[in-house]
Amino acid sequence: MQRIGVFVCHCGSNIAAAVDVKQVAETLKNEPNVVFAADYPYMCSENGQQLIRNAIKENQLTGVVVCSCSPRMHEATFRKTAEESGLNPYMVEIANIREQCSWIHKDRMTATAKAVVLGRAAIAKVRLNAPLTAGESPVVKRALVIGGGIAGIQTALDIAEAGYPVDIVEKKPTIGGKMAQLDKTFPTLDCAACILTPKMVEAAQHENITLYTYSEIEEVKGYVGNFRVKIRKKARYVHEDLCSGCGVCTQKCPSRKGGNEFNLSLDKRGAIYIPFAQAIPNVPVIDTEQCLKFKTGKCGLCQMNCAAKAIDFSQQDEIVEQEYGAIVAATGFNPISLDKFGEFGYQTYPDVVTSLEFERILNAAGPTKGHLERPSDGKPPKTLVFVQCVGSRDTSGRGKEYCSKICCMYTAKHAMLVREKYPDTEVYVFYIDVRTPGKNFDEFYRRAVEQYGVHYIKGMVGKVYDDGAGHLMVRASDLLANEQLTISADMVILAAATEPDKTARSLATMLTASMDTNDFFTEAHPKLRPVESPTAGVFLSGFCQGPKDIPETVSQAGAAAVKVIGLLSKNKLKSNPCVARSDSLVCSGCSNCEKVCPFGAITYTEAEVNDGTGKEIRRIAVVNEAVCHGCGACTVACPSGAMDLKGFSSNQIFAEVDAICR
Amino acid sequence: MTERDYCEEALLLSGVHPEKCMKCGKCSGACPSYDEMEYHPHQFVDMIAKGQIKKLMESESLYHCLSCFVCVERCPRNVMPANLVEAVRTLRERSIGNDRLKPDDVAALLDEETPGQLLMAAFRKYSK
Question: Which fold has domain A143-234+317-332+503-568?
Answer without folding.
Answer: FAD/NAD(P)-binding domain (3.50.50)
